[in-house]
């Protein structure tokens, strides 16, 4: 088993490599599209999206495997990728601070190994449990970035849509504490919801700026797998019928339009690098002149810039 694997997330300027110490994520966010990804589907024993959040499979031997890999995988080798930045991500098909990490400590051990080996590590989590490892992150602050998702600051909605993650206002405090200790922080405004107003988006980006965030990423809610059906159901059950209706009328065309509107709002900033499949949705759902304008925002080697342009 390889613990450290190439990541396609360089296309979003996030990182070149990834370590996922677990399969599954106890946080159980309903928007999460990880259960539809091959890296989860092929390793979760056939569990479907409805079971997401209800299982966690620690990767047996992941720490030992990483230790073996790092004997030859140097920071110089980590840069030999298409993007060539060498960042290692923890983690992007699970949350590496899922509650069981408090006792399993696989993330902590992997983090220690990576940092001792001189690698640059980007940690993204929806959990305040990461505060346990601030000592490690602060000791290597020239080579780490810590980020959290702040799609909104409504803890009541978060309790419905991210049932077992730390609430967003507490996550914001976690980032503030990290920044106060000199740990470089970033914010992912993700996912931008169909009901997110432009003013709210700009406010979130402004807060990130006040925190001294090194980067602000942005990702618009992506209809994938069965995530929309689960969100709509949970919002109805939670009494948020208006929001459930917004999800019900949300589809790939709405996603294409919302990504376009977000890019227009934030264009010129460093906030939003769309995922390559966004380009396909644009090409299918938006007018040619808009597709042409949007194509410039796609990652250079996604191959889709040309595809978008050729439709014009
Ligand atoms: S914390 Fe991240 S990986 Fe876990 S369920 Fe939520 S979105 Fe998915």
Describe the protein's architecture and organization.
With 312 residues, the protein is an alpha/beta fold. It has a single domain, classed as TIM Barrel (Alpha-Beta Barrel). The chain is 41% helix and 12% strand. The chain has 15 helices and nine strands. It has helices at 38-41, 62-69, 75-78, 101-104, 106-116, 134-139, 155-161, 168-180, 198-210, 227-237, 241-248, 252-266, 276-285, 288-295, 304-310, and strands at residues 4-6, 17-19, 22-23, 57-58, 87-90, 120-124, 144-149, 185-192, 216-220. A seven-stranded mixed β-sheet has the order 1-2-5-6-7-8-9. It has a two-stranded antiparallel ribbon with strand order 3-4. Helix 13 packs parallel to helix 15 (304-310). The radius of gyration is 19 Å and the shape is globular. It starts with a strand and ends with a helix. The structure holds iron/sulfur cluster (SF4). The site of iron/sulfur cluster has 11 residues, from loops.
Extended strand count? 9
Number of domains: 1
The mean pLDDT is 89
Helix content: 40-55%
According to CATH, the fold-level topology is TIM Barrel
Indicate the proportion of strand residues: 5-15%
CATH C-level class is Alpha Beta
Architecture (CATH level 2) name = Alpha-Beta Barrel
The gyration radius over C-alpha positions equals 19 Å
How many DSSP helices? 15
What would the principal axes of the Cα set say about the shape? globular
Query: What's the order of the H and E elements?
Result: EEEHEHHEHHEHEHHEHEHHHHHH
Across the major sheet, the strand order is 1-2-5-6-7-8-9
Query: Which ions, cofactors or small ligands are bound in this entry?
Result: iron/sulfur cluster
Point out poorly predicted stretches: 302-312
Largest sheet: 7 strands, mixed
Distance between the termini: 45 Å
Alpha-beta content class: alpha/beta
